[in-house]
Design goal:
Number of strands: 2
Strand order of the largest sheet: 1-2
Radius of gyration: 40 Å
Strand content: 5-15%
Number of helices: 4
Structural class: mainly alpha
Oligomer: single chain
Keywords: Membrane, Transmembrane, Transmembrane helix
Helix content: over 70%
Distance between the termini: 118 Å
């Protein structure tokens, strides 16, 4: 076992000089070969490519959906909300006129009586 000396007077063993790594080297070699052959297989490559394409499409779809939601929301605020407010104001005005007419005792409109 060799050692390397660093500043401060501490000596550390070399990384490659471990006795346990030489025993497991044969198993690690087989495992690494199997892992590399699986990770380089066409099936894994196709799976990664399909997953990447699906993520890209999902991102684009989410982005365009957000833009459409923004357009629909601002259009609603600019066009529909003022219309709703005006219709509510008109309904309140009509209701007020009916209340005043009933308090003053004016006869109902001629079209409803005949």
């Amino acid at each position: 076992m060799s050692s390397s000396r660093i500043a401060g007077g501490v000596s550390l063993p070399d990384r490659g000089a471990s006795s346990s790594s030489s025993k497991s080297g044969a198993r690690g070699g087989v495992l690494s070969r199997v892992t590399s052959s699986i990770s380089q297989s066409p099936v894994v490559y196709q799976g990664k490519r399909v997953a990447c394409d699906a993520a890209f499409v999902a991102k684009k779809l989410l982005k365009s959906t957000g833009k459409a939601a923004w357009i629909a929301g601002t259009t609603f605020l600019v066009l529909v909300v003022p219309l709703i407010i005006e219709m509510d104001r008109d309904a309140q005005f009509t209701e007020l006129e009916l209340q005043q007419a009933s308090l003053l005792g004016t006869p109902p409109s001629a079209s409803s009586g005949q």
